[in-house]
Amino acid sequence: MSTSSAPGDPMTPIYHTQEGDPRILAQLIIGGLGEGCESLYDYEKGGHHPVHLEDLLGPQNRYRVIHKLGKGGFANVWLCRDTQDGPSRYVALKILMADYSQEDCPELRALELNNLLKHDSKGRQHVCLPLDNFRIEGPNGSHLCFVYPVLGPCASSRPAKFEYSKFSLRRFALQATQAVAALHEIGLCHGDLSASNILLRTIRYNELSEDELIETLGQPRREEVRTMGGDQHQNPSAPQYLVYPIDSTEMESKFLTGDACITDLGESFEVQEPPENLGIPISYRAPELLLGGKPGRGCDLWALGCILFEIRMGRQLFGTWDDDTGEYLHTVAMTLGKYPEPFWSNWEDRSDTLEEEADEQGRVVLTAEVLGRIVGHDTHSADGLAIEPRSLLEAIAPALFYDAAYKPRNPRKQASKISDEEAKLFADLLEKLLAYEPERRLSAQEASEHEWFKFSDEEQQETIVVPEQTNDQSMDIEQQTGVDEQPASAEEPELEVKAQEASPGGRITNQAAPSPMEIEQKPSEIEEGRRRMRRHSI
């Protein structure tokens, strides 16, 4: 579909028939830009079901809509009260677009997981399983609906009011790994694994009245949908207003458990029947999917490696501008080395930035033209290349290599700091998950047994206080950490990498790395530096 509107101007949906000829079914506008809401253009035949607050949905009008939890590419998720199960029980109701609600919808497979997942599997309780499902009929078609427990924010957006420790981040990462292992054990691939699909479990919401819950989450914010003349519209395909999703990063810590839960199995597939393509975001997509390879377990494992980095370090490993494929392949190659054949030859644009031959260490080499564009620009290294990590260890702990002492974004939250001992263990795990050849990647089960998850630094005192278990549906399963917690000991001194300790070239070599210490880093500065380099090299 297409539009003709400038920012701030009324937005007029242009709909298309199956033949591709545009015709205006309705001229509707929203009161503001609606940034953060689903597109108004998705309310047509085959699209979203129009939902309003206080709507009653499901069999016997069981679920009453009270807020919005999120929106996605093919579904909206609403916070509902289950009116037939006690004084208060809150659920997440996911309503798929009509075009995605076919009988072969992959998300229907999630209904079978209750029986397929082994009850003694450590990862079972970290997979979000549906509580109920049904269909609703509406002006835009027939829609599959799935009822899930209410979950918290995702791994890629640490809540502002939630304190993390390094131990709790490793524990969270382990649970995500165990969940992937549980899926792979029954021959199922997630297919859309990203940090946004790994959420924190919630607790105690069912103790709140509806008014108390709304006070906690905030009143729903709306954007009115009107005709071009400002009147109430009569188009049954569109709602009378759009609702902004809640900001889950503002959830209070007392409602969060610190436990991981993998969601969104809508792209899942059986290992023996892989699809042609996957819709996984570029930043988590295995390179073989872009270079002639096929989907499989290896795609989940690559994405898992990227997610573990993001959970532990608080930033993306291979972030890109606007999901640019060329930039992504370049960034991966700069960090992990030259792609093996046939992937290297299948990358048609490689010569834009890289020489054909790697150096003696297997690292890719920038072309002379790119080097010439970089020289003279502000970087953290005398040779002009240090801003782009050349190994996973360098990406994890850049202060081990550069003379800059990066400070955490919030001095009170030191979770992104990492000792050189932990950094080396973490790099070893990621190297085995991010092997270029899918068959060489560590399995999820093997990864869950890696020494990094058992690492015991001197900061073992949990900053997360897990509330007592209640009757909340989302906590009706046994908590399993899988990590042996050690007693806290004396706090080790915090040091910084000083400029005079660096080598003459402005770098600290692996051999000259400081003794075990805490490396302070500011993710935003590191990422901004990388972006500066990319703008001149691509």
TrEMBL record:
Composition skew (Basic and acidic residues), residue ranges: 519-530
Pfam family, one: Pkinase
EC number, UniProt record: 2.7.11.1
Keyword Membrane: no
Compositional bias annotation for Polar residues: 468-483
CC annotations in GO: nucleus
Keywords from the named record: ATP-binding, Kinase, Nucleotide-binding, Serine/threonine-protein kinase, Transferase
Membrane-spanning intervals of the chain: none
Annotated InterPro entries: CLK_kinases, Kinase-like_dom_sf, Prot_kinase_dom, Protein_kinase_ATP_BS, Tyr_kinase_AS
SMART domains, alphabetized: S_TKc (SM00220)
Quaternary structure note: Component of the EKC/KEOPS complex composed of at least BUD32, CGI121, GON7, KAE1 and PCC1; the whole complex dimerizes.
Protein name (database record): EKC/KEOPS complex subunit BUD32
Origin species: Cercospora beticola (Sugarbeet leaf spot fungus)
